[in-house]
């Protein structure tokens, strides 16, 4: 797991979180518990809809993992920045 940056034209932060969690847990994204059990995905997408505040971040727990979404577009799971495939 290395660093990745969101493409705000094609990706939403909530979808990137789901992809990162699926990769970390080696689980099909459709088999994961819904993200809305941990955080409001729409609010997350609205907060990071553009790169206006690169210093912003949101951290929340998802099952046994700590997830952080950063204003620069990176997604970290348990402190490790996730790279998309």
UniProtKB/TrEMBL annotation:
Halobacterial output domain segment(s): 10-78
InterPro entries recorded: HalOD1
Family matches, as Pfam families: HalOD1 (PF18545)
The name this protein goes by in its record: Halobacterial output domain-containing protein
Organism (species): Natronobacterium texcoconense
